[in-house]
Amino acid sequence: MAFHEVRFPASLSFGSVGGPERRTDIITLANGFEERNTPWAHSRRRYDAGFGLRSLDDVEALIAFFEARQGQLIGFRWKDWSDYKSCAPSDEIDALDQLIAIGDETTARFQLIKTYRSGPTTYARPISKPVAGTVRASIGGDTMQEGIDFEVDVATGEIVFAHPPDQGAEIRAGYEFDVPVRFDTDAIMTSLSSFQAGEAPNIPVVEIRV
Questions:
Q1: 210 vs 71: CA distance, rounded Å
Q2: Is there a contact between 19 and 196 (Cβ–Cβ < 8 Å)?
Q3: What are phi and psi of 111, to 5 degrees?
Q4: 37 has which bridge partners?
Q5: What letters, b where the CB count within 10 A reaches 16 and e where it falls short, cover 126-135?
Q6: pLDDT digits (tens, 9 = 90+) for 34-65
Q7: Per-residue pLDDT for 190 more than 80?
Q8: How many whole angstroms from its chain centre is CA 143?
Q9: How far is 93 from 99, CA to CA, in rounded Å?
Q10: How many CB atoms neighbour CB 174 within 10 A?
């Protein structure tokens, strides 16, 4: 699947609306009880880029980006301003932010993940598009040095250590990340009169698996 490792202009995604969606199949039984199930192991995010446009120059930048991706054909990176860090938005990234694995003295390659918690329930989200230069990592509480102790594949979200971490050692990481997305339309309809009246065009964007 075609994918460009380029981010949608962050100035345009700022102010957009969107977030995660789940898919739930619900069957109501004869006795009134429900059976609920989901075919999705992970949520999928949707956004509307139209709300981030503030000027006609923004519209021109959007159209140029859309044409370069050939509509829905080619995926790209998207900064979700409401969720783009391994920590809280107001905090600084730290090498201890997220527990991604436990060492076994054999494995040296690990997928970055972000864990969401609500009470005793957790959800581990794979992070496939970390932002280059932002990844911090630690083993057993000791901070590692990128380029010496580990490397990061920013196209897959995998972190590779020079030596497999010791048995039982906590492997943690902190990072900024983007969402892999594509346009969810092959047509962009803009109107000067509508834009001047404050009406945002509909520019749907949907998360993809890479």
A1: 18
A2: no
A3: -85, 135
A4: 25
A5: ebbbbbeebb
A6: 999 989 989 999 999 887 777 778 888 888 99
A7: no
A8: 24
A9: 14
A10: 21
